[in-house]
């Protein structure tokens, strides 16, 4: 029998590094509630600041991995603090607010995620909100290139729905419609506000109709679409999609948060259908659902673009598009805020082209002129 060497202490078990999350909110009750939710994930520890001035004093001593920021606060509002923070010490920020226009402004300034404040009295929905909030914190930690280990739950499983719950898998068939119109579908998540602005600014009025899924809470996508539509750099029109809206050349439709968006063939073109249902790939709207619908409705007449974002939403759908003969594009790593979604699409062989953000619009317009450029090989 081997004797244990007692001259050396036993090796302690290893644990993932603890990541500090600073919560900045003027309500002591809200600070404590958010702290409890965040620390339910043992990878996080929480520090608390009552306002931006207290946060600045704490930042001089310790730099957190993620900041959770309120908007309405005394002495200095959250957006002013965010602007100063991004100039002097950029870091991942999750904004908690229910004001849609401020949410879009925060994303433009560089906030990683925006989540709407919950109704704390609605116990039935609070559990779902808490998990969504925790996922935002995890996304921010990943975006900050922090040491963050992926977990799929206690059993190692990935308990989530696929696109099958919204749209069964069906191969593309040209029958059932006579359309010859091209179509562009785009999926984007973390870092997407600036990316979508730059992408749309690169399109001429002759661009085919565009449908976009941007992971964003339900109350914020309308304000985001309005902001894009008023952006002088963007020549095409932009609006939040409504049920049965036609997909028109020279116009982009943003799928509303909180509902799934599909494209359906109709006559000589396409229309958007909005459907209720559970989150797919942890998201609603889901890029996976949009891409699958485009593969089925348009096949070789569609172009799919997967851009900056965490996770794998859309990777399987983009592969279905490529197999249906669509042009498929992934944003390259150097131009992504978070390379997760494009990386997974590339890993699965879904992307025919991997290009920087500033080349995506030109790649699509070259395909419009020469559709053979997007065929499956």
UniProtKB/TrEMBL annotation:
Keywords annotated in UniProt: Chemotaxis, Cytoplasm, Hydrolase, Phosphoprotein
Biological-process GO terms, alphabetical: chemotaxis
Xref: Pfam families: CheB_methylest, Response_reg
SUPFAM superfamilies according to UniProt: CheY-like, Methylesterase CheB, C-terminal domain
Processing after translation: Phosphorylated by CheA. Phosphorylation of the N-terminal regulatory domain activates the methylesterase activity.
Subcellular location per the Swiss-Prot or TrEMBL entry: Cytoplasm
4-aspartylphosphate modification, residue list: 70
Domain of life: Bacteria
PROSITE patterns, per the entry: CHEB, RESPONSE_REGULATORY
DNA-binding in keyword set: no
Residues in CheB-type methylesterase domain copies: 171-371
Any one annotated GO CC term: cytoplasm
GO molecular function: phosphorelay response regulator activity; protein-glutamate methylesterase activity; protein-glutamine glutaminase activity
Domain comment, as recorded: Contains a C-terminal catalytic domain, and an N-terminal region which modulates catalytic activity.
PANTHER family from the UniProt entry: PROTEIN-GLUTAMATE METHYLESTERASE/PROTEIN-GLUTAMINE GLUTAMINASE, PROTEIN-GLUTAMATE METHYLESTERASE_PROTEIN-GLUTAMINE GLUTAMINASE
Its job: Involved in chemotaxis. Part of a chemotaxis signal transduction system that modulates chemotaxis in response to various stimuli. Catalyzes the demethylation of specific methylglutamate residues introduced into the chemoreceptors (methyl-accepting chemotaxis proteins or MCP) by CheR. Also mediates the irreversible deamidation of specific glutamine residues to glutamic acid.
Stated name of the protein: Protein-glutamate methylesterase/protein-glutamine glutaminase
Organism: Paludisphaera borealis
Gene name of the record: cheB3
